C-alpha cells in the first residue's frame, strides 16, 4: 500500500474536498486525485463519494480513514524521533476562544521550549470541527455537549463584575444584583445566544443591557470609559483592577465558575506534538494558581 497516497487520502477526508486538501498540502489537485484513485484500485474498494459539493468517505472509506490515520501518525512520529536529533518538529493546529489573551503568553513560552514547532492558532466564536477543520487541540470554555471528543478539564476560572470609578460616581455602589441591574450594563451576546440573567444563591435577576457584543475589547471599552458594568473573567480584569481603572462590584458574592477544557478527537491517538502541548499547558496553568 502506498504510504503517500494514504496520507493524501487522509488529507482529503479532513479537508472535505480535493481542492481544499491541495491548499493545505501544497500538492496539485491532479496528483491528489490520481494517487487516491490508485489507492482505491489497489484496495479494490471505493473510498470516497465524489460530488460537486465535495467528497465524503464511504462506509468502507471511513473505516479505512480511522484506522489508517492512527498508523500514519505513529509512523510519522517514529520517523521524526530518529531524524530530528530528539527534538520535536512539525506544525500544531490549535483553536482558542476569541479575545482569550491569557493563551498568547502560554503559546510564546511553549514555542520557546519547542522552537522547532510552528503553531497555527484559529481564534473565533464558531465551535470548530476537529476533523473537518484539521484542528489538533481546541480550547473551550464552559459545559461541553458532545461525545465525539476527549475533553480534559484544565483550570477553573472565575468571573467578576467590574465598573469604573467614574460610573460609580454617578450611581450608588450596588449591594445586590437587583441594585446592579439598575445601572447601565454591557454584556456578551453572540448571533445565536444572549442570556441576560444573573444568578447567585436564591437571587435571580434579569437585566437589559445598553450594549451587547461578542467582542471582549468592545465590552472592556465601555467599562473603561465609564459607560457600563461588565462581567469579565478574572484574568482579563486583573490588570485594570490593579491599576485602579476598574473596581470590582459585589465582591461578597460567590463567583461564577467557568471550566476551561482542552479538547481533541476521541478516535485520534494524540501525536507527540499534541502530547507535548497538553503536558505543557497542564504545567503552565498550575503556576497561575
Automatic annotation (TrEMBL):
Residues 1-58 form the HTH lysR-type domain. It comes from the Bacteria. Keywords: DNA-binding, Transcription, Transcription regulation. Pfam families: HTH_1, LysR_substrate. Gene3D superfamilies: 3.40.190.290, Winged helix-like DNA-binding domain superfamily/Winged helix DNA-binding domain. Belongs to the LysR transcriptional regulatory family. This is LysR family transcriptional regulator. The lineage of its organism: Bacteria, Pseudomonadati, Pseudomonadota, Gammaproteobacteria, Enterobacterales.
Amino acid at each position: 500500500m502506498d504510504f503517500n497516497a494514504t496520507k493524501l487520502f487522509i488529507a482529503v477526508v479532513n479537508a472535505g474536498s480535493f481542492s481544499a486538501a491541495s491548499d493545505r498540502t501544497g500538492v496539485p489537485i491532479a496528483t491528489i486525485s490520481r494517487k487516491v484513485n490508485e489507492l482505491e484500485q489497489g484496495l479494490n474498494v471505493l473510498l470516497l463519494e465524489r460530488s460537486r459539493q465535495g467528497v465524503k468517505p464511504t462506509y468502507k472509506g471511513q473505516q479505512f480513514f480511522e484506522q489508517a490515520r492512527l498508523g500514519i501518525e505513529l509512523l510519522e512520529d517514529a520517523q521524526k524521533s530518529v531524524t530530528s536529533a530528539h527534538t520535536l518538529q512539525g506544525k500544531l493546529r490549535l483553536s482558542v476562544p476569541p479575545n482569550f489573551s491569557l493563551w498568547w503568553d502560554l503559546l510564546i513560552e511553549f514555542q520557546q521550549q519547542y522552537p522547532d514547532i510552528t503553531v497555527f492558532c484559529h481564534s473565533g466564536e464558531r465551535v470548530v470541527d476537529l476533523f473537518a477543520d484539521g484542528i489538533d487541540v481546541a480550547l473551550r470554555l464552559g459545559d461541553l455537549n458532545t461525545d465525539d471528543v476527549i475533553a480534559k478539564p484544565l483550570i477553573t476560572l472565575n468571573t467578576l463584575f467590574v465598573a469604573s470609578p467614574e460610573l460609580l460616581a454617578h450611581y450608588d455602589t450596588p449591594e445586590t444584583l437587583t441594585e446592579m441591574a439598575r445601572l447601565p450594563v454591557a454584556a456578551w451576546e453572540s448571533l445565536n445566544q444572549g442570556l441576560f440573567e444573573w444568578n447567585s444563591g436564591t437571587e435571580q435577576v434579569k437585566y437589559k443591557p445598553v450594549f451587547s457584543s461578542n467582542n471582549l475589547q468592545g465590552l472592556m471599552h465601555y467599562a473603561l470609559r465609564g459607560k457600563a458594568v461588565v462581567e469579565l473573567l478574572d484574568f482579563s480584569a486583573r490588570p485594570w483592577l490593579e491599576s485602579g481603572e476598574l473596581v470590582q462590584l459585589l465582591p461578597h458574592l460567590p463567583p461564577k465558575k467557568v471550566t476551561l477544557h482542552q479538547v481533541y478527537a476521541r478516535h485520534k491517538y494524540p501525536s507527540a506534538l499534541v502530547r507535548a502541548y497538553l503536558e505543557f499547558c497542564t504545567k503552565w496553568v498550575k503556576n497561575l494558581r
